[in-house]
């Protein structure tokens, strides 16, 4: 299971990547999946076990995650609310 | 045998007339006559797109297009040979995608390569030139992506001179070191060249 974070802008994505990597969290930059949005954008993908820690770090650094999705093993996306 | 005379007709009328004739036509050979090269090319392309074979004979100023419908077996054969000749080469001459901000260019390159994984790619070779070779060396963010592409059968070639220049020869992690002969040949022989 993977988590996909969407941000307001590509600048935020770049800052978020830098900070999360600095804290040793393994993440990946991916093009925003077509199932989620038709816009051309980049998102951050990370594994399920580091999701809450990543959200906490981003909050501390005042980078807001706009949307969060859970990608199940079959590749289906489910929107997560209240993160 | 049906003959469709399209002489004196302006584009795109010959194609339209051919289409109407094709729709009604069951089997055998059909001849379309046109009086200029543009119409000849257009009708030929249209007929081929409809799965027909086309043979062109010039007579004076006119072109006689002998059109034959292919049977199902021939169609499959044609599609197969079409697939066979597809040599798609992705030519990456920088570690950045597009011209502009480099950090953005890096992100776009990562996105591009990742997207290649998801698409039904028929690409057979990827050539990395100049700073493009950084993508296949230690510390690159796309190593995993390139590894998967390579496992899918895409041959990844890095320019040896470039690796040498950047001092990365020992740090190549995916694909092979190549030379300008192979690279130039791949570019010349490619059926389709993609330069992102």
User: pLDDT average of chain A, as an integer?
Assistant: 90
The CATH superfamily of the largest domain in chain B is DsrEFH-like
What level of helicity do the residues of chain B show?
40-55%
Strand content of chain A: 25-35%
Largest sheet of chain B: 5 strands, parallel
CATH architecture of chain A: 2-Layer Sandwich
Question: Can you describe what's shown?
Answer:
- The complex is a heterodimer of chains A (83) and B (196).
- Chain A has 83 residues and is an alpha+beta fold.
- Chain A has a single domain (2-80), classed as Alpha-Beta Plaits, CATH 3.30.70.
- Chain A is built from two helices and five strands; from the N terminus they run E-H-E-E-H-E-E.
- Chain A has a five-stranded antiparallel beta sheet with strand order 2-3-1-4-5, with helices on one face.
- In chain A, strand 4 and strand 5 form a beta hairpin.
- The radius of gyration of chain A is 12 Å and the shape is globular.
- By secondary structure, chain B is an alpha/beta fold.
- Chain B has two domains: 2-80, Translation Initiation Factor IF3 (2-Layer Sandwich); 85-194, Hypothetical Protein Ychn, Chain: A (3-Layer(aba) Sandwich).
- Helices cover 41% and strands 24% of the residues of chain B.
- Chain B has helices at 13-24, 37-49, 72-84, 102-118, 143-151, 160-165, 180-189, and strands at residues 2-5, 29-34, 52-59, 62-69, 88-92, 123-128, 155-159, 176-178, 192-194.
- In chain B, strands 8-7-6-5-9 form a five-stranded parallel beta sheet. Chain B has a four-stranded mixed beta sheet with strand order 1-2-4-3, covered by helices on one side.
- In chain B, strand 3 and strand 4 form a beta hairpin.
- The longest helix of chain B has 17 residues, at 102-118.
- Chains A and B meet through helix 1 and strand 2 of A and helix 4 of B.
């Amino acid at each position: 299971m993977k988590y996909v974070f969407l941000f307001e802008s590509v600048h935020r994505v770049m800052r978020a990547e830098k900070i999360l990597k600095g804290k040793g969290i393994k993440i990946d930059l991916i093009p925003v999946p077509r199932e989620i949005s038709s816009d051309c954008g980049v998102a951050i993908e990370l594994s399920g076990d580091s999701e809450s820690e990543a959200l906490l770090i981003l909050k501390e650094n005042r980078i807001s995650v706009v949307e969060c999705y859970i990608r199940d093993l079959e590749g289906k996306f489910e929107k997560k609310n209240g993160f | 045998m049906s003959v469709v005379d399209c002489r004196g007709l302006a584009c795109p009328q010959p194609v339209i007339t051919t289409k109407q004739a094709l729709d009604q036509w069951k089997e055998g050979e059909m001849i379309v006559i046109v009086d200029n090269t543009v119409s000849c090319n257009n009708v030929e392309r249209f007929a081929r797109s409809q799965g027909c074979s086309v043979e062109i004979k010039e007579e004076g100023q006119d072109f006689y297009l002998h059109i034959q419908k292919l049977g199902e077996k021939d169609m499959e054969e044609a599609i197969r040979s079409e697939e066979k000749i597809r040599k798609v080469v992705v030519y990456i001459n920088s570690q950045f995608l597009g011209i502009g901000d480099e950090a953005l260019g890096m992100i776009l390159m990562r996105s591009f390569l990742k997207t290649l994984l998801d698409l039904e790619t028929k690409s057979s070779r990827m050539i990395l030139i100049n700073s493009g070779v950084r993508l296949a060396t230690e510390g690159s963010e796309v190593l995993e992506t390139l590894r998967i592409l390579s496992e899918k059968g895409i041959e990844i070639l890095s320019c040896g001179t470039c690796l040498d220049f950047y001092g990365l020869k020992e740090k190549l992690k995916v694909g092979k070191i190549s030379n300008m002969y192979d690279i130039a040949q791949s570019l010349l022989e490619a059926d389709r060249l993609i330069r992102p």
